[in-house]
Amino acid sequence: xxxxxxxxxxxxxxxxxxxxxxxxxxxxxxxxxxxxxxxxxxxxxxxxxxxxxxxxxxxxxxxxxxxxxxxxxxxxxxxxxxxxxxxxxxxxxxxxxxxxxxxxxxxxxxxxxxxxxxxxxxxxxxxxxx
Length: 130
Prior knowledge:
The chain is mainly α. The protein has one domain (3-127). Helices cover 78% and strands 0% of the residues. Helix 1 packs across helix 3 (41-66), helix 3 packs antiparallel against helix 4 and helix 4 runs antiparallel to helix 5. It is globular and about 45 Å long. The chain crosses the membrane at residues 12-31, 43-64, 76-95, 101-118.
């Protein structure tokens, strides 16, 4: 395992409390908004853990692809927050409002585009707009 990847993975594992809290909050809203949830409350914990792993993994992948360090991750944190909220908005629309599951495909495509934009935008361009 590459030492850079290992360092990023460990740093993001320590910071994964935010995705955990967001997952608990997001899934509780979705679950309580559903007329007749198709899964049990105990399975909800599995969904929270899977979502937390996904969101933490998104932070790891974004940092690896963009080459950012933990000290300069403000734009990655903003991207991650937007991605996290976006995920639950899309899940809410699909699971509660009955929209097409293709919205989740659109979400994944938007994530890939966002990571690509982060990768191609130099840090000095971002910092000059502050």
